[in-house]
Structures are given as C-alpha cells and as structure tokens.
Design goal:
Blueprint lengths: L3 H9 L1 H12 L3 H32 L4 H7 L7 H4 L1 H18 L25 H25 L11 H8 L3 H7 L1
Helix pairs in contact: 2-3, 3-6, 6-7
C-alpha cells in the first residue's frame, strides 16, 4: 500500500496552519482576519493541486512517486504525451494553482499592496518577516519539483526511441534531468 502522493499532499497542507497561526500570534485583529482569508485561499489552491495529483494517480495507476516516474520512463512516455488532453489540462491547472499557492502575482491577494496592512505578517519585521518570504520561495521550489516529478517524468531521461540518442541521454545523471525539467 504505497501512499507517496497522499503523504506529499498531507505534508504540503500544513502550511495553511502555519499562516493562520502567524496571524493569530501577532495579536492583531486585522492580521487574524487576513490570516483567515489567506488560509481559505490556500485551502482552495490545495484542493486544485490535489485534484490534479489524483488525475496523475488515475492515469499512472499507482500512488508511489517512483512508480509514477517509472511509468514515464521510455521513448515518448512523458505523461503529457501518454495522458493527452486530461494530463495537459491537469498540468496547466497544477501550474496555475501552484503559482497561486506560492503567492506570486496576480494571485497575491492575501497581501495586497494597496491595503494599509500587509496581510497576516503585518506585525512581523526582520528575521520573522524574512522567514515567511523564505517559506514562500521554498514552497515555489517544492511545487516546481512536484510538477517535474508528476507530469514531466522526474529524474528519468528523455528518450525518443532512437538508440544512439537514448544511450547518450541515459548517461546524464538523474539530478541533472530533475533540475532541468
């Protein structure tokens, strides 16, 4: 019983709790309100991401992350080629929802520049404020890694069915493929 995708989804949803606790710990009613708004928005983005991951699980037939990558190993076996329209739509929705969850524009409504308060981190400055932005950028890298793993084949090399080309591509280490994708 492999639950790799379920574990990734469960761990990524902990960030919602962190944002709500940040607004509550600042002891400011406006920060609590904007933390609630940001938490609700992040829950809606998490639902979109989860539905896209469910479509990957349905198309590959496994919840194990290495099994999903193995499914995409081989000539023209990328999920975007194998799954056709549903996989492409899931990939595009995953990219948009991941961008939204990372609070990148135009989805940065949780801390609008036109408001007097900056959102749930109004009362934070210095390193506390820096850690929140560090967490947002780290979330962006995690979402990118998940997109590369689930939809683009992760660490598997790109093969096209030509033996000489495939042999050369197989010599490139998996970490290079993962970071390149």
């Amino acid at each position: 019983f492999n639950v790799g995708v379920f574990l990734v989804t469960a761990i990524s949803s902990i960030g919602v709790l962190g944002i709500f606790m940040a607004g509550w710990a600042s002891n400011n009613k406006y920060s609590v309100l904007s933390a609630m708004r940001a938490a609700v928005q992040m829950i809606s983005y998490e639902l979109s991401l989860s539905i896209c991951l469910i479509s990957v699980v349905i198309l590959t037939g496994t919840m194990q992350i290495s099994g999903i990558v193995e499914f995409q190993t081989g000539p023209w076996r990328c999920l975007l080629f194998q799954g056709h329209i549903p996989a492409i739509m899931a990939f595009l929705v995953f990219l948009v929802a991941g961008n939204a969850e990372a609070n990148r524009g135009p989805f940065d409504l949780a801390e609008a520049e036109s408001e007097l308060t900056a959102g749930y981190h109004t009362e934070y400055s210095g390193m506390g404020f820096g850690f929140y932005y560090l967490a947002e950028y780290l979330n962006l890298f995690v979402i990118s890694g998940l997109a590369a793993t689930m939809f683009l084949g992760g660490w598997a090399p790109i093969n096209i069915g030509v033996e000489s080309f495939d042999n050369i591509m197989n010599l490139i280490p998996g970490i290079v493929w993962f970071l390149g994708k």
